Amino acid sequence: MRATVIYGERDIRLDEVADPKLSSGGDAIVRVVAACVCGSDLWPYRGVTPTTEPHRIGHEFVGIVQEIGPDVQTVAVGDFVIAPFYDCDNTCVNCRNGVSTSCLNGGWWGSEDKFGGFADGAQGELVRVPHADGSLVATPQMPEAEQVPGLLTLADVMGTGHHAAVSAGVTLGSTVVVVGDGAVGLCAIIAAKRLGASRIVAMSRHADRQALALEFGATDIVEERGDEGVARIREMFDGIGADCILECVGTKESMDQAIRSARPGGMVGYVGAPNGGPELPVRSLFNRNVGVNGGVASVRGYIEELLPEVLSGEIDPGRVFDLQLPLADVAEAYAAMDERRAIKVLLRP
Amino acid sequence: MRATVIYGERDIRLDEVADPKLSSGGDAIVRVVAACVCGSDLWPYRGVTPTTEPHRIGHEFVGIVQEIGPDVQTVAVGDFVIAPFYDCDNTCVNCRNGVSTSCLNGGWWGSEDKFGGFADGAQGELVRVPHADGSLVATPQMPEAEQVPGLLTLADVMGTGHHAAVSAGVTLGSTVVVVGDGAVGLCAIIAAKRLGASRIVAMSRHADRQALALEFGATDIVEERGDEGVARIREMFDGIGADCILECVGTKESMDQAIRSARPGGMVGYVGAPNGGPELPVRSLFNRNVGVNGGVASVRGYIEELLPEVLSGEIDPGRVFDLQLPLADVAEAYAAMDERRAIKVLLRP
């Protein structure tokens, strides 16, 4: 089969690799219908995270079950399935606590899983899915083609935006600021709206993203950043800031923006992978009682909640895909996102 | 009147100072019945926070209203009142949001308030209280002498322990670890128990504090610290850690202990003033979805909730005072706490 391999900085290739094989009683082989490029894939692409040797890449996909192990019970050959950006058994104590990204038996696409060998990266034609019963969620019926982008967002960005909103405690009447206008930030707007936020500020400087933010439910746009951005936000909310800040970037600057935009007693829900690890300024958090909650989003547990609204069209997160390319053009997909020519690129094998 | 002044490292004196005077329509003069020494008073006492010039010190007191300004409505001369460790109007947007420590018009004992001049430190005979209507809570009747220590804890340590528990989201059935066996940590045990925690681990190495912790509701004692402490806690809770960690110290080591003792998806409620400001390790918080919430405790808002249980004896936080001294012995009070001969010292003018 063909699968995407990263060789180094800005060196993405579609290679011919061995087809995956079932290797334990509970896994499944899924034929990928759609995959995509994640903002976090750009860290190795840009060389910020060094690539020491070529390896598979990608972690978001939907597809059709091609083969299952004898122990698999909840999905069947021919099912259309959504996979979260990690595998999990969905039964261990961490999964039961709603933190399936810390599954005691889970793993990550493109690496060895703990039991059955290699789990393919998702930007390819086939993926071996460990713990298929835990990891995969089948749609009630075969979706229409136009539903596929929305379903694909449940693999990561929609669930991750939702995690930001849940972690920040967004509820009926909350005032919300979303830091970051990438796919996750835009999905966080959808999430905040469906949780009942009364006002949602999108911090964005890009006209196309501003437009989508407003369509998704943002009530205000703020273009300023840094001190000016903080001043604007405070001015909008009683001079003190907003209840809930959804941090969807992961840089030192964006986290600083988020923390200072929160009102005393407010909460930052953060899902931007902290690349390089800016530390949090505990004294300023302490003085203003600003909490920080979130992390690598346990999207598996959100799929059942969000799926009906995606299928019904009540929410339309698939619109974050503003470019669709054949898998053969995966290198161009990375370039388009790197150069901000696209918010998020969908790949079809 | 006599009032406590800190001159420098380990130099605490009881000085003769001018009596306070009413200086605005809304303030009150309170005759102190009992005050105490706070763990945070030990930072300047030990020279960790430098004392550049002599200044009043103390911020916890209860007393009897001696005089009120013409605008004061909720307390009357002769009332027994509890003051939080700060003054606040209890009407501004931050107070309404439950964060009265960020009151837009508030201030701190022993410093200039924004309107009426100097607000005395509490380790003295009289205190001018700005915003008397907002700051003070009168007891329904004159308390018995043995109730005074419990009431005094509502000025700070009981409310602060409660804030740790609330910030960590302690609720029915929560598993809880309390880091710190000082007065706040011990009160946090009381708070966790009354909020319904199913298991409460006190991390303590001192026999007398362990005994009080168990009487207050701790179900387990852990003496280990650092890696061994984390290993013990994880072993006790499914190998993953506890739901809620109440951090009641404020050092880098105690915060590290707290963060690593939380299970994935758990929450650290922290109230220990971060002295010198250890920064929070965002990557390890992110990877395990451990949240951090809390700060300088808005105890004013908790007084009404906790007061009935203190008066009825249902909770008995006053037991944290294991030494009572006349105000004249204030220097010895500091020494006793500094040398850990006392958990917390109550002072009577």
TrEMBL record, chains A, B:
Q: Keywords in UniProt for this one?
A: Metal-binding, Oxidoreductase, Zinc
| Residue ranges of domain Enoyl reductase (ER) in the record | 8-347
Lineage top rank: taxon: Bacteria
Identify which cofactors the protein needs according to its UniProt entry: Zn(2+)
- Keyword set includes Oxidoreductase: yes
Is Glycoprotein one of the keywords UniProt gives this record? no
Gene3D superfamilies attached here?
Medium-chain alcohol dehydrogenases, catalytic domain (3.90.180.10), NAD(P)-binding Rossmann-like Domain (3.40.50.720)
Q: What protein does this entry describe? A: Zinc-dependent alcohol dehydrogenase family protein
Q: What is the lineage of its organism?
A: Bacteria, Bacillati, Actinomycetota, Actinomycetes, Micrococcales
